[in-house]
Amino acid sequence: MAAQFAMVAAVLSCLLALASCNTEGDILYKQRLAWKDPDNVLESWDPTLVNPCTWFHVTCNNDNTIIRVDLGNAGISGPLIPDLGGLQNLQYLELYDNSLNGTIPATLGNLSKLISLDLYENQLTGEIPATLGAIGTLRYLRLYENNLTGVIPTSLGNLTSLQELKLQKNALSGSIPSSLGNLKTLFFLKLNENMLSGTVPLEVLSLVISGNLTELNIAKNDLAGTVRSSGFRVILTRIVTAIITVSAIIQDKLKTT
Ligand SMILES: *[C@@H]1O[C@H](CO)[C@@H](O)[C@H](O)[C@H]1NC(C)=O
Ligand SMILES: *[C@@H]1O[C@H](CO)[C@@H](O)[C@H](O)[C@H]1NC(C)=O
Ligand SMILES: *[C@@H]1O[C@H](CO)[C@@H](O)[C@H](O)[C@H]1NC(C)=O
Ligand SMILES: *[C@@H]1O[C@H](CO)[C@@H](O)[C@H](O)[C@H]1NC(C)=O
Ligand SMILES: *[C@@H]1O[C@H](CO)[C@@H](O)[C@H](O)[C@H]1NC(C)=O
């Protein structure tokens, strides 16, 4: 009788543990099913384990919740599922250099502890979700070399911990939001090889003085008309000559007269 009771209790607590602990494993397993994985890098993602902490390419903290997913250059293809936004303690989402396609889910804006979102060198399409502007912890946002369209969300100006914003080699259009001038922590701002138009906001240029910006690359966009305006040229020259710490402001060739 006592033995039976103990067994029932063990099974119950196990079920409870599964219910409370494997939510994150369920999310990643669902993502595994949505991906093609020709190199079998996801073979260890076994949903029958109590939690995903022993799976390859997954790192947990001491509370057995996921803080990293490292699948750069892993040969995977397919979509990002919106459920990924449920990985509440995720700090690093490293999925660069794969063949991911479809859109970036707006739910990723729920990853309130995210430090690094690396989705560069994939085939993602659609717009950059404005919800990403809610991730105050974000330091690295690298979405370059995809096929992203639409505007750079104004909300990215809320990312006041951001050190790298790399959106180059997409098909982004519209103007560069002046809100990016809030990003005093930014070291690298790469927007080259898009279809951006309008003027480069003074707020952004002045980050060279008021912030940490050391590389601003705006080459190969549709900014040419404004880049050639004398007002812009004067201001840019003043910044370049005043600030010796700037290593590069790369842009389309300026007319000198
Ligand atoms: C993603 O790629 C797969 C395989 O090429 C294709 O079947 C699917 O339609 C693509 N999805 C999107 C949203 O482009
Ligand atoms: C996550 O984000 C989406 C879209 O931004 C939102 O609709 C949803 O309510 C959020 N989910 C949770 C669990 O916070
Ligand atoms: C992305 O853009 C490149 C270059 O324009 C193109 O070759 C490729 O087919 C596009 N991929 C998708 C998934 O749209
Ligand atoms: C983020 O930025 C947008 C647009 O600049 C603003 O309307 C919004 O209130 C900000 N959200 C947060 C959470 O700071
Ligand atoms: C600039 O970078 C330095 C060194 O990383 C850091 O200590 C400082 O707080 C940064 N400045 C701003 C305005 O973020």
From TrEMBL:
<dbReference type="Pfam" id="PF08263">
    <property type="entry name" value="LRRNT_2"/>
</dbReference>
<keyword id="KW-0677">Repeat</keyword>
<keyword id="KW-0732">Signal</keyword>
<keyword id="KW-0418">Kinase</keyword>
<dbReference type="InterPro" id="IPR055414">
    <property type="entry name" value="LRR_R13L4/SHOC2-like"/>
</dbReference>
<dbReference type="GO" id="GO:0016301">
    <property type="term" value="F:kinase activity"/>
</dbReference>
<feature type="signal peptide">
    <location>
        <begin position="1"/>
        <end position="21"/>
    </location>
</feature>
<feature type="domain" description="Disease resistance R13L4/SHOC-2-like LRR">
    <location>
        <begin position="82"/>
        <end position="193"/>
    </location>
</feature>
<keyword id="KW-0433">Leucine-rich repeat</keyword>
<feature type="domain" description="Leucine-rich repeat-containing N-terminal plant-type">
    <location>
        <begin position="22"/>
        <end position="61"/>
    </location>
</feature>
<keyword id="KW-0675">Receptor</keyword>
<keyword id="KW-0808">Transferase</keyword>
<dbReference type="InterPro" id="IPR013210">
    <property type="entry name" value="LRR_N_plant-typ"/>
</dbReference>
<dbReference type="Pfam" id="PF23598">
    <property type="entry name" value="LRR_14"/>
</dbReference>
<protein>
    <submittedName>
        <fullName>Somatic embryogenesis receptor kinase 1</fullName>
    </submittedName>
</protein>
<dbReference type="InterPro" id="IPR032675">
    <property type="entry name" value="LRR_dom_sf"/>
</dbReference>
